[in-house]
Amino acid sequence: MSQADYFQFIFPARYIYIRPIRLFISELSKSVGFDKADAHVIETLLDEACTNAIEHGSPKYSDNKITVNIFIDYEKLMVEVIDEGRGDLHLTKDEILKNYSITSLVDINKTILEKRGRGLYLMSQLADHLEIKPYLNNQGTTVVFYKYRKNVEKVAI
Amino acid sequence: MADLIFDIEERKGLTILNIKGDIDASNVTQLGKTLDELKDSGKINLIINLKDLGHINSRGFGILVHRYQVFSGMGGSIKICSLSEHNMMIFNILGGTQIFNIYNSIEDIIGK
To answer: In the prediction, which pLDDT does A62 show?
Structure first.
């Protein structure tokens, strides 16, 4: 990605730090031309990715770090959320959609008590692009999502 | 921790839980605890008013679904009202509209 503006946050794996970054990315999205609805979608995507990174990718809890990289170019906003977890997952958006279906999420007899899986499914529905892949040499997991601008030609950064 | 305020009121014999603020992983246990306290005090026919809910993530939604099952299993119910456009979209995606009875406003449930 060339000519992208870039922001980075590195923070201890604690849930209390998600909110300030969530609010930052919402304001950032609006500042660079995303409408309020898309800004809230981006905020939700970041929340889900960071929550997963802390819950599943931080075996030493707050001794682990979460890294959030935000790239903005003329066509999209791209976010990477990197944890220090197992680092062997590689899932595309299509694979996530195959693994988590809305039918299983609302099956009152089977999985209603299952609280996991909803976050990834929600992300797969909200993001224009979603991918989960190992970070470097399996040193963690990276979740990557994009949200494309609706009217690229009207936006000048 | 994200600000989260619970206000419980009784109107026309019904218990209404008004939730104000954002629900995320930092405070979702407060939501579960509040719902459990209502259940333990026998208030199992509940209206949850989300007019002032700014943000909810999948964990918060999961707590609502779980407690819905618990309340229903005891013969009660949870009705949801006044979701914002964004939060309604989240509920739609996660199947919430198939699980809960969702109303546009509190007046649609209890009358004016």
So the answer is: 87
Give the contacts of B13 (CB within 8 A, at least 6 positions apart).
Answer: none
Q: How far is CA B24 from CA A23, A43, A92, A155, B31, in A?
A: 12, 12, 25, 31, 10
CB contact under 8 A, A44 and B95: no
Instruction: Please check the confidence at residue B91 and state whether its pLDDT lies above 90.
Output: yes
Cβ contact A108–B69 (<8 Å): yes
For A115, name the nearest residue in chain B, comparing CA atoms only.
Answer: B62
B21: closest chain A residue by CA: A19
User: B82 phi and psi, to 5 degrees?
Assistant: 65, 45
Q: Rounded to an integer, what distance in angstroms lies between the CA atom of residue A77 and that of residue A71?
A: 6
Distance from C-alpha of A2 to C-alpha of A99, rounded to nearest angstrom: 33
Distance of CA A65 to the CA centre of its chain: 16
State the pLDDT at residue A95.
83
DSSP letter assigned to residue A92 = E
- Alpha-carbon distance of B79 to B101, in angstroms, equals 5
Q: For A47-87, what is each residue's pLDDT tens digit?
A: 999 999 999 899 998 899 999 999 999 999 999 999 999 87
* A113 vs B101: which has the higher pLDDT: B101
- B85/A105 Cβ within 8 A: no
Residue labelled with tokens 């999948």: B58
pLDDT for B9 beyond 70: yes
Q: How confident is the model at residue A91 (pLDDT cuts 50, 70, 90)?
A: confident
Contact: A122, B99; criterion CB under 8 Å:
no
- Top residue of A106, A110, A120, A121 to mutate, by most chain B CBs within 10 Å, is A106
